[in-house]
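sanity check this fold:
=====
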Amino acid sequence: MRIAFVISSLRQGGPVTVLANLTKALAGRGHTCKVFYFDAGEEVRFVCPTERVPFFRPFKFSDYDVIHVNGIRSNYYASIHIPPRQRRHYVVISTVHAYTLEEFSLAYSPVKAYLFNLLFMWSLRRHDCVVALSKNMRQYLTKWIKPEKITWAYNGIDTELIDSIEGTNLGNFFQQGDVRLICNSALVKLKRVDLAIRSLCYLPPHFKLWINGDGPLRRQLESLCMDLHVADRVHFAGQVMNPISYLKQMNVFIQCSMTEGFCLAMAEAAACRLNIVSSDIPGMREKYSDSEVRYFRISSSDEASAQRMAVEIVQANEQKDLGERARKKVEDQFSLKQMGLRYEQIFERVLNQVNHRK
């Protein structure tokens, strides 16, 4: 198949990393891939050609069998430029990367969140198929999209590449005997990194937290560390180019988001055999069982949530085989091979369905 991918930019981030993995998987299965993007800037490298295009100027869609779009701008780009289904041989497929209404609700007022979510769902109206990142998300999307139009596919990661990366030098922050905790996360409201910081109040002093990532809440989180008297136990590394190299040096990975579509960072931590503590959010237990990840519940009380997280961190640190089980899950279900095969099946099925209806 000839497959065109469309995304807003090639800047480092979850959806771009997923797309780079997907193109690598599909190219490895013999398909011809090309990535089109709108915004200039620092770029993630792809195994296939890439081309920057203006939003209001379409590339030649008819050169491809599948147009795969990612994000609201790419959705509208396809919707604006594609002809009616009866006049085209190719199909348009979009992957939804988040529980959209929940994410909008954490950033905006209820009215704005509702309107932005409607705009997002409207951007999918002319597409032939919508891919969710889990079965749970597929069910969630049926509130706005016909069930027969939605399918699911897990993300995949490159375990061979991850295995080849060596651990980085962490300087003098950790001392011998310390338990090394890590969050790889943007510092925004929905990620709830504050809970990881608060959990240190309920953990022994040799439990220390390393945070990779940046965002608008950084100063607020640094102030929280001072207020809780744990500033000497938290290191803010900012945005790092190769977060995998930091995972290789850690003991426990913490995922404390209010919502996640797939959580690529968590899959990368699992691939590194880290013991994982995660918030118990929709779709997560579908991917990882209690024997692979330790879960805690986020409630309206920050202190109670942090206490529950601290209990699970201690358990995760003591449960030495947890990371091995999580690694096995990645190899079995979240590999590049599995993702490439699943998307190949989706693309072929949608092509056959659309062409059969003509």
Notes: The longest strand covers residues 2-9. The CA atoms of residues 132 and 152 lie 4 Å apart.
